[in-house]
Structures are given as structure tokens and as C-alpha cells.
Amino acid sequence: MVYGVLATFFSYRIFRSICFHTTFPVIVSHCMQTGTICILSLDLFLAIAIPFRYRSFHLPLYFGCMFSVPICYAFGISIAAKIYLDDSELQMCNPPSSMVPFVRQWWYEIMLTFSFLTVIFYSGALGLLSCKIHRKSTDIRLIERKALKTLKVLIVIFLFTRFISTGSATLVQHLKINPETILYIQNYNVIPAVAAYSQNAYVCFFRSEEYRRLLTEQVTMYFPCFKNAFPIKSTERSMSMKRATVVVKI
């Protein structure tokens, strides 16, 4: 991406072939991330819809099948972009502009499909949790109430970043408006898309005490030098100790 920034804002001539090979890792990771968000939303929906059957899934086969979808999408688009690559000059270097127009259209259409499915699965999970709470079931736990609020935040962030940006970029292509306007919209749509990167992680980090504690423990386990930089808050540690005490007493 350093080349893209330099070539965009300084006096460099940008060619698609160089741009593609420079941004190739970003294209693959972007496609992987788009598909992964979708399968994570599906995984959450299944965990809420069929909890007992979900626990009996054969994990290696289950995760293998789930993650094969974003892998096929990532490498399929990358291979197609490489096959049809040309050396035309570009105004801006980023993952969308590094692909020829019809491959870029496939990229956006598949991404929009993933985004649409993500919204459906998140909304379905939200609806199931809402129904369970509104029925005032006796097995409602605090963690489920927190999950309901977290789902609302995830859906709002996803709608106002990835879904709207992908939808608008796909829409302008189908409307066949001025090509320069299409390129302008698609180039700057990268900004809201980046905001959606790892949204599950940072939303859960800010909303879940347990997630923060576990993440801190994992980071300090592999990088002990960060132990002082990422201390576990005393309130979180005390809450964890209380839970452990309750478990021992039971």
C-alpha cells in the first residue's frame, strides 16, 4: 500500500500491472475478510438457532467447509485479475483499481452478496435473541442480553460501512454512469470498507469484559514484553476472581 500512497499523491505514473502486484496481498486478505465476516455471522446464527446440534458439529470438517468459501473467493478473484491483467495507466492505486473493469465488477457483486448474507444472518441472530428475551424465558442469562446489544452495534457498523460502500460501488456500475464518476466512487469507497476491518474484534473488545481479559492474556502469553503495556484492569480481574470463586463453591 506504500506504493499506492506514493503513486497517488506524488508525481508517479501508475500502471495497473505494478499496482496489482503491489496490492495483491491486500486483495487476498480483503476477500478473505469479507467472506470470513459472513461465515462468522452464519456461525453465530447457527449457535443461537440450533444450540444443541451446533455443539455436536465435527469441528475440523465444519470449519474446513466454512473457510473454504472465502478462500475460493479470494484466490478465484486474484487469479482472474492476474489472467486478464493489462498495463493501462491509473489515476489511483488501490485494490479495486488494480483489476480490469469486468473482474472488478465480479469482485463487487460477490462482495455485495456476502454483505447481504451477513446482514441477514446477523439480523436473524438478533431476532432470535429478541424473541427469547421478549418471551421472558427463565433461561435468559446476562451474557445473552449483552450479546443482543453487541449484535445491534455490529449490524449498525456493518450497514454504515461495508454494506453501503459495497452497494453503492456495485450500483454505479450497473447504472452505467460516467466511467470517471464510477472510478471516483470506487476508489474512495475503500475508506469506509477499511473501517469495517475486524469490526467484530473491536466491538467485542469495547463491549465484553471477558473478551478483553482473554485477549490480554493471549497477547501477554506470546509477547511477555507487552504485559505492562496491556494490564488487565483491576475491576476485570476482580470480576474474574469472583466468577472463579462462585464456580469453586458450586
From TrEMBL:
Q: Name the keywords, alphabetized.
A: Membrane, Transmembrane, Transmembrane helix
Localization in the cell: Membrane
Which Pfam families does UniProt cross-reference here? 7TM_GPCR_Srsx
Q: Which InterPro entries match?
A: 7TM_GPCR_Srsx, 7TM_GPCR_Srsx_nematod, GPCR_Rhodpsn
Task: Write down any Gene Ontology CC term.
Answer: membrane
Q: Where are the bilayer-spanning segments? A: 26-49, 61-85, 105-129, 150-172
Say which species the protein is native to.
Caenorhabditis briggsae
Gene Ontology terms, MF aspect:
G protein-coupled receptor activity
Q: What is the name of the protein in this document?
A: Uncharacterized protein
